[in-house]
């Protein structure tokens, strides 16, 4: 491919709106362009990267035995009402109506659609296990779309869904997906880590996230210096949710007769799980409600309150909080209050207090609640976040370290949640109806492009891992418009390299060599060959790997070996 035939609108200046290196370089290199908040166009160069990621993902999915399908982006509301998520999913679900005023949404994920497909098409244990995947556009109306491809509203995901007769069968596929993810991210040249993850409200089943390690990552991941224990922060900080809920219920019942349940849906006391696992929502009948949360997760807490149909929250002032606890407790207030205002508008705000992490349970007092005494401190309800240097809970020998990660993949045992809600059962060997067990497995295909850049760049631009690069080799033809020899030699080399199986970008533009080199560095091709009158006279090629600082002169045989 000639540079004059592919549109690469590079930018000299760093766009002001881009904070992250990946966002800056993908814009500057002409890989993507912004349409609106969280919406991006893939330019020719960017699309080549995307296709290469898709290819690796597809090959590894196919290798694992998963079958590719393609489901609609637009999904009927009825399915989401059946699963209960039409109400629960919240504002990330973009809802729309068709011309007949029927409700639809843009798919943020496809559990409902695939479960519907399975209940129509799969009737016998003989058809199981089966695993379907797609590579497709998702839409999530993220509250804070940012960092370009990293957190888009429209983005591309590989999502797979497996169906099984029993848990043992799910375990086998789960492991094979886990292995396929290891191979995929290894082939993509990423430095990544699989970590245990919380599976939120579903409980009891396994889940892992795959994180690309990068300081700019939005997630904190915890790992042991001694054993192979690694988990995301939510998981590392929370004991088994079920145990936590039971213990908390016991404690709460001692303190406050009248509390009925700690079930996530209960109106009188709830533990908000999943992302909001660090949030305890304690609601006593006929008393002002109390919300206690750790960190700066106030928005999630408010959302949780909303989901639990709490209509009264009270905002505690820092003074009130201090007076109630009698100690400086690190009250920080809801940091993200501005975004939460639309949600708050639906509530009569009565109380909200927020403790910074690092405080001990023992230091925390339950304020704004006329309880006779503080809740006792059952270990299972210890809501401390893990901090670096804590002893490893698994081997007790190592200490825990905390790093930043970018979530690029997630494997998840769904169990029978969707089968139950949507009536997915098949005939088992004895001819009886049996509920189907499910797993789901996502990869952020478009996010991978950004994550790769976060790990592979220098002050001159991107350094693509071999598997992702839009072209394997860049040929810079110096003053090709003036030298027919250079033009011909560069074109011939281009053709030979392509014939040998490499994709090649030939820069034949009428530009100064400095500009040509800067473009090659910015767009990050791993190998560069310079063709000039000078090197032609020496009968060699001038070669430089993207990470190298010096040129080397190579014969063509040597070049092909690079
Ligand atoms: P996050 O915690 O970053 O919001 P998630 O846990 O909500 O992600 P999943 O539902 O697990 O995401 O979706 C599977 C994968 O899709 C994620 O692991 C991630 O790589 C990718 N993904 C999720 N949301 C986005 C987004 N807004 N933009 C780009 N990729 C995304
Ligand atoms: Mg999300
Ligand atoms: Mg996540
Ligand atoms: Mg996830």
UniProtKB/TrEMBL annotation:
Sorted keywords for this record are: Aminoacyl-tRNA synthetase, ATP-binding, Cytoplasm, Ligase, Nucleotide-binding, Protein biosynthesis
GO biological process terms, semicolon-separated: prolyl-tRNA aminoacylation
GO cellular component terms listed in the entry, alphabetical order: cytosol
Chemical reaction(s) catalysed: tRNA(Pro) + L-proline + ATP = L-prolyl-tRNA(Pro) + AMP + diphosphate
Q: Which GO terms describe its molecular function?
A: aminoacyl-tRNA deacylase activity; ATP binding; proline-tRNA ligase activity
On the tree of life, the source organism's domain of life is: Bacteria
What InterPro entries does the record tag this protein with?
aa-tRNA-synt_IIb, aa-tRNA-synth_II, aa-tRNA-synth_II/BPL/LPL, Anticodon-bd, Anticodon-bd_dom_sf, Pro-tRNA-ligase_IIa, Pro-tRNA-synth_IIa_bac-type, Pro-tRNA-Synthase_IIa_type1
Q: Where in the cell is it found?
A: Cytoplasm
> Which Enzyme Commission number(s) are listed?
6.1.1.15
Name the major location: cytoplasm
User: Domain Aminoacyl-transfer RNA synthetases class-II family profile spans what residues?
Assistant: 33-465
Checking SUPFAM superfamilies in the record gives:
Class II aaRS ABD-related, Class II aaRS and biotin synthetases, YbaK/ProRS associated domain
Check the record and name the Pfam families matching this protein.
Answer: HGTP_anticodon, tRNA-synt_2b, tRNA_edit
Q: What is known of its domains?
A: Consists of three domains: the N-terminal catalytic domain, the editing domain and the C-terminal anticodon-binding domain.
Q: What does this protein do?
A: Catalyzes the attachment of proline to tRNA(Pro) in a two-step reaction: proline is first activated by ATP to form Pro-AMP and then transferred to the acceptor end of tRNA(Pro). As ProRS can inadvertently accommodate and process non-cognate amino acids such as alanine and cysteine, to avoid such errors it has two additional distinct editing activities against alanine. One activity is designated as 'pretransfer' editing and involves the tRNA(Pro)-independent hydrolysis of activated Ala-AMP.
What quaternary arrangement does the UniProt entry report?
Homodimer.
Family named by the database record: Belongs to the class-II aminoacyl-tRNA synthetase family. ProS type 1 subfamily.
Q: Which HAMAP family did the record assign?
A: Pro_tRNA_synth_type1 (MF_01569)
Q: What is this protein called?
A: Proline--tRNA ligase
């Amino acid at each position: 491919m000639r540079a004059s035939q592919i549109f690469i609108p590079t930018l000299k200046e760093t766009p002001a709106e881009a904070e992250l290196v990946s966002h800056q370089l993908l814009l500057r290199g002409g890989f993507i362009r912004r349409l609106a908040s969280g919406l991006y166009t893939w330019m020719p160069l960017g699309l080549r990267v995307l296709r290469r990621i898709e290819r690796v993902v597809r090959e590894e999915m196919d290798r694992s035995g998963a079958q590719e399908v393609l489901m609609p982006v637009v999904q009927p509301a009825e399915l989401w009402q059946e699963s209960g998520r039409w109400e629960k999913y919240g504002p990330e679900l973009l809802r729309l109506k068709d011309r007949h005023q029927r409700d639809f949404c843009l798919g943020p994920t496809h559990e409902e659609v695939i479960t519907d497909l399975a209940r129509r098409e799969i009737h016998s244990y003989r058809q199981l296990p089966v695993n379907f995947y797609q590579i497709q556009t998702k839409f999530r109306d993220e509250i804070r779309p940012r960092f370009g491809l990293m957190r888009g509203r429209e983005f591309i995901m590989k999502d797979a869904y497996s169906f099984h007769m029993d848990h043992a069968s799910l375990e086998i596929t789960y492991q094979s997906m886990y292995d396929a993810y290891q191979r995929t991210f290894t082939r993509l040249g990423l430095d990544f880590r699989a970590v245990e993850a919380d599976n939120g409200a579903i409980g009891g089943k396994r889940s892992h996230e795959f994180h690309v390690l990068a300081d700019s990552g939005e997630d904190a991941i915890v790992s042991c210096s001694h054993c192979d224990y690694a988990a995301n922060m939510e998981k590392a900080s929370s004991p088994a949710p079920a145990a936590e809920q039971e213990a908390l219920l016991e404690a709460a019942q001692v303190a406050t007769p009248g509390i009925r349940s700690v079930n996530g849906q209960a109106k009188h006391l709830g533990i908000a799980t999943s992302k909001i696992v660090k949030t305890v929502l304690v609601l006593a009948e006929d008393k002002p409600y109390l919300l206690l949360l750790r960190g700066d997760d106030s928005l999630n807490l408010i959302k949780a309150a909303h989901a639990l149909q709490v209509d009264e929250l009270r905002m505690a002032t820092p003074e009130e909080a201090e007076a109630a606890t009698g100690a400086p407790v690190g009250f920080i207030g809801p940091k993200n209050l501005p975004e939460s205002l639309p949600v708050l508008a639906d509530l009569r705000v009565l109380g909200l207090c927020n403790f910074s992490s690092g405080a001990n349970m023992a230091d925390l007092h339950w304020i704004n609640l006329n309880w006779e005494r503080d809740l006792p401190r059952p270990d299972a309800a210890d809501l401390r976040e893990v901090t670096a240097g804590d002893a490893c809970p698994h081997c007790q020998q190592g200490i825990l370290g905390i790093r930043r990660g970018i979530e690029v993949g997630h494997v998840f045992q769904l169990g029978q949640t969707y089968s139950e809600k949507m009536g997915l059962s098949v005939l088992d060997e004895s001819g009886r109806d049996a509920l189907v067990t499910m797993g789901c497995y996502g990869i952020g295909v478009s996010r991978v492009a950004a994550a790769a850049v976060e790990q592979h760049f220098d002050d001159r631009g991107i350094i693509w891992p071999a598997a992702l690069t839009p072209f394997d080799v860049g040929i810079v033809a110096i003053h090709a418009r003036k030298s027919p020899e250079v033009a011909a030699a560069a074109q011939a080399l281009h053709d030979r390299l392509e014939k040998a199986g490499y994709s090649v970008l030939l820069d034949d533009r009428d530009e100064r060599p400095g500009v040509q080199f800067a473009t090659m560095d910015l767009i990050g091709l791993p190998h560069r060959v310079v063709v000039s009158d000078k090197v032609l006279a020496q009968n060699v090629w001038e070669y430089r790997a993207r990470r190298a600082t010096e040129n080397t002169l190579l014969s063509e045989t040597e070049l092909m070996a690079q």
